[in-house]
């Protein structure tokens, strides 16, 4: 490799923990566990950490998350950060840490995340409150980077389990796939992921499934998605990575073949509101984001030895494959962990797990790996190329692309055409209501509810995209009939 700039950032420590015994520890305990383990692997004393950065935890609001962890570790980092809510947050923190190290502002950084939502559920089911430490008082507002659009809130379209299926139905219709063809194709794409999870000791669900098992015999969550093909969020999982300057890695005695480098990464955005997407079933931002990351890395998709595409829902995988021209059945596979539905989807933390797993794989085999992240409703995208071979240009968090939105009309009376839809189901498996995104004759889009049981059955029995409907507003929401 020759002489290396001593400021070159490299990843030299990782840790993952999955707790299955319930109730388990609180997030602060998990942060401490993975921080110590990752630092130990990096041969770096925890009190020596120059930066501590944490991914937002949904499980518990601490009064000072980073401060509490620093106290536990006996560290006094010069730099501290606590992210907002987003599946892209881990990569943004990693990218910031790498940039600061390359600039000579830091020489080491810990990035960690932890969720204990399975433990919260265990306490809730027992009728007890979680006995966790250092609660924030007053409790801060939820860590949205920006709140949902008022029309989305009014139509109760702010849960990913509803927004992602709407994009899925739009894509399905644009390709001329039948409802059954989409489900069969989804099972075929995701079944290999269950096999990866079955071999991953950190995975939450470690049972290999057939394509048929994934799409039949389990209840719908947000039609057409079944429970076994969406991210499993109520997990107790934590992960951490340690990045240092190459000069410090030399002094710590870390062999060069055990260092992993961020060759290049990029960030881009589609529209924040799903209904505002110019093409409801496709992403404008993914292709541009991936192109920038590969260009910065000086590599192409054919150079990549392993991939982990963010997989909260099938449409996230499909839009990525469409944009980067990757066969969903590519021999390299779509995940190194098993993905969010099987390895586990710990809120905003998943990319820490995929990065840690990718680093371990690259250390063992050498080569290049792609790790992607998705935030909000397929809004935010990160593409990162990791390698055992240093080089490339880092990049930063400045968006390489920002999509222009289609106008959203809050209330509307008159004819419209269905652009995408879902049918929300309750925990008993029964359909509750339909949620539509519709194209308006004069341009723009609107939302609408479908409430009649007969129409819900019709929506699930045939392709509704392209259906002419009539919207009537009650002053709060639009209701569709046909």
List the helices and strands and how they pair.
Elements: E1 9-18, H1 27-41, E2 51-54, H2 65-73, E3 79-82, H3 89-102, E4 108-116, H4 117-125, H5 150-154, H6 160-174, H7 179-198, H8 211-215, E5 220-223, E6 225-226, E7 236-245, H9 246-252, E8 261-269, H10 285-297, E9 306-308, H11 314-324, H12 350-365, E10 368-375, E11 380-387, E12 399-402, E13 414-425, E14 431-439, E15 445-450, H13 453-461, E16 468-473, E17 478-481
Parallel strand pairs: 2-3, 2-4, 8-12, 9-10
Antiparallel strand pairs: 1-7, 4-7, 5-6, 5-13, 8-11, 10-11, 13-14, 13-16, 14-15, 16-17
Helix pairs in contact: 1-2, 10-11
Uncertain runs are none
DSSP summary: helix tally: 13
| Largest sheet data | 7 strands, antiparallel
Shape: globular
Instruction: Spell the H/E element sequence.
Output: EHEHEHEHHHHHEEEHEHEHHEEEEEEHEE
Separation, N- and C-terminal Cα atoms:
67 Å
What report would you give on this structure?
By secondary structure, the chain is α+β, with helices and mostly antiparallel strands. Helix content is 31%, strand content 23%. The chain has 13 helices and 17 strands. The protein has helices spanning 27-41, 65-73, 89-102, 117-125, 150-154, 160-174, 179-198, 211-215, 246-252, 285-297, 314-324, 350-365, 453-461, and strands at residues 9-18, 51-54, 79-82, 108-116, 220-223, 225-226, 236-245, 261-269, 306-308, 368-375, 380-387, 399-402, 414-425, 431-439, 445-450, 468-473, 478-481. Strands 5, 6, 13, 14, 15, 16 and 17 form a seven-stranded antiparallel sheet that branches. The chain has a five-stranded mixed sheet with strand order 1-7-4-2-3, sandwiched between helices. Strands 9-10-11-8-12 form a five-stranded mixed sheet, with helices on both faces. Helix 2 links the parallel strand 2 (51-54) and strand 3. Helix 1 packs across helix 2 (65-73) and helix 10 (285-297) crosses helix 11 (314-324). The longest helix is centred in the middle third of the chain and has 20 residues, at 179-198. The relative contact order is 0.16.
């Amino acid at each position: 490799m020759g002489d290396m700039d001593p400021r070159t950032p490299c990843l030299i420590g990782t840790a993952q923990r999955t707790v299955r015994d319930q109730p388990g520890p609180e997030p602060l305990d998990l942060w401490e566990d993975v921080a110590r383990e990752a630092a130990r692997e990096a041969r770096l004393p925890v009190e020596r950490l120059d930066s501590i950065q944490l991914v937002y935890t949904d499980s518990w609001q601490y009064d000072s998350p980073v401060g509490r962890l620093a106290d536990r570790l006996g560290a006094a980092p010069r730099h501290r950060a606590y992210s907002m809510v987003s599946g892209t947050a881990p990569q943004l923190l990693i990218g910031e840490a790498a940039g600061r190290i390359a600039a000579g502002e830091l020489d080491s950084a810990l990035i960690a995340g932890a969720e204990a939502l399975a433990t919260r559920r265990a306490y809730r089911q027992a009728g007890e409150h979680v006995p966790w430490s250092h609660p924030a008082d007053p409790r801060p507002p939820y860590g949205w980077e920006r709140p949902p659009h008022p029309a989305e809130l009014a139509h109760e379209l702010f849960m990913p389990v509803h927004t992602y299926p709407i994009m899925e139905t739009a894509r399905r219709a644009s390709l001329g796939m039948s409802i059954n063809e989409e489900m069969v194709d989804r099972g075929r794409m995701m079944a290999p992921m269950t096999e990866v999870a079955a071999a991953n000791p950190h995975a939450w669900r470690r049972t290999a499934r057939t394509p048929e098992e994934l799409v039949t015999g389990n209840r719908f969550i947000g039609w057409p998605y079944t429970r076994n093909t969406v991210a499993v969020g109520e997990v107790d999982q934590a992960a951490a990575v340690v990045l240092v300057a190459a000069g410090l890695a030399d002094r710590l005695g870390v062999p060069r073949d055990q260092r992993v480098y961020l060759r290049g990464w990029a960030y881009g955005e589609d529209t924040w509101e799903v209904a505002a997407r110019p093409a409801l079933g496709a992403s404008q931002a993914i292709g541009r984001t991936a192109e920038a990351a590969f260009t910065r890395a000086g590599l192409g998709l054919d150079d990549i030895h392993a991939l982990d595409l963010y997989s909260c829902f099938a449409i996230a995988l499909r839009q990525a494959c469409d944009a980067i021209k990757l066969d969903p059945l590519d021999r390299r596979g779509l995940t190194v962990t098993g993905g969010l539905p099987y390895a586990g989807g710990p809120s905003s933390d998943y990319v820490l797990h995929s990065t840690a797993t990718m680093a371990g794989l690259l250390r063992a085999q050498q080569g290049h790996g792609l790790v992607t992240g998705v935030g909000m409703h397929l809004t935010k995208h990160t593409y990162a190329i990791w390698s055992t071979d240093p080089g490339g240009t880092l990049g930063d968090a400045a968006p390489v692309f920002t999509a222009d939105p289609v106008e959203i009309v809050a209330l509307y009376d008159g004819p419209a055409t269905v652009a995408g839809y879902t049918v929300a189901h309750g925990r008993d498996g029964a359909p509750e209501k339909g949620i539509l995104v519709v194209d308006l004759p004069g341009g723009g889009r609107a939302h609408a509810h479908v409430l009649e049981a007969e129409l819900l059955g019709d929506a699930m029995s045939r392709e509704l995209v392209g259906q002419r409907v009539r919207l009537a507003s009650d002053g709060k929401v639009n209701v569709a009939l046909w």
